[in-house]
Amino acid sequence: MTGPLRIDATATARLLGPAAAIDVLAGVLRAGLDPEAVPPRTAVPVPAGELLLMPAATAAHVGVKIAGVAPANPARGLPRVTGSYLLLDGTDLRPLALLDGAALTELRTPAVSALAVRHLTPGDRPSRLVLFGTGPQAYGHLEAVLAVRDLAEVSVVGRDPAGVRALAGYARTLGVPARPGTPDDVGGADLVVCCTTARTPLFDGDLVAPGATVVAVGSHEPTARETDTALVVRSEVYVEARTAALREAGDLLVPTAEGAIAEDHIAGNLAELVTGARAPSAERPRFFKSVGMAWEDLAVAVALYRAALAG
Question: Which end of the chain is more exposed for a tag (fewer CB within 10 A), N or C?
Fold first, then answer.
């Protein structure tokens, strides 16, 4: 008896690109998946950082990601996020595939953001992007955004000048004018994407123009945030699921604790955007806050498994 199919990081990159991953997520939402009903993530503190357990199930498949978040790893030359994903048959729970958890996360998180960008930003002209962060998620988000929107320019903002130059150089290889930027560049941006480990706001939310879109993916902790209260108050807010955001999204929970917003400040979730149940306003900034959910991992893992079987 053979064991589960193994899909490593190299195979993940070969089998499914950003555009296909975006379409997979859109497809499961259009088919009726309710993000609000997905089991919550379990977070367990461990000496090296945090262990995350993320289960999800459909009639056809069941899956669970075991992810480690080790803040000290980058200084050792190791990835901050590690882990594995186990995909099982939904009928008899036989293991079908074992996937690289970090590679899966690096594919599905940008795909979620880009799906939101597709519905929150106009596509009639190239966008000016300000990208915060220089790690794997920043690279993934650049590629995923390019799968749904043309970019006129990319400004890269980060703590490491060498990392900023490297990411800007990579953007230029993709045909996009790019340069090192500053937080104040958000004032001229059509799209701002935050992919950092910051625990406090990265920029002044009052600078963001009405009609611009901000995406924040860097934290899933109630006390950590990449955006400030001013931006959240001004913005029309969208999330993957209200249930998850109100458990984990510090970008929203901190302003709520301050009394600046109420829980009903959230305008809609990703499923409502994709199905057309909610349409964004052009009068205010749009803010999409992602914390990462297990249904996203399952949807992309199933697509990777099917692509691997197809050869």
Answer: N
Model pLDDT, residue 184: 98
Q: Give CA–CA dist 98/212, Å, rounded.
A: 39
Instruction: Report which DSSP code applies to 74.
Output: G
Q: How big is the CA angle at 276 (ends 236 and 39), to the nearest 5 degrees?
A: 75
Amino acid at position 250, single letter:
G
How far is 158 from 131, CA to CA, in rounded Å?
A: 9
Supply the pTM of this predicted model: 0.96
* Residue 54 to residue 153: CA distance in whole angstroms: 36
DSSP for residue 39: P
Residue 127 CA to its chain's centroid (Å): 19
pLDDT in tens, 142-182: 999 999 999 999 999 999 999 999 999 999 999 999 999 99
- Cα distances from 59 to residues 33, 62, 63, 91, in angstroms, run 12, 8, 11, 7
Please measure the distance between the N-terminal and C-terminal CA atoms of the chain and give it in whole angstroms.
21
Mean pLDDT of the chain: 96
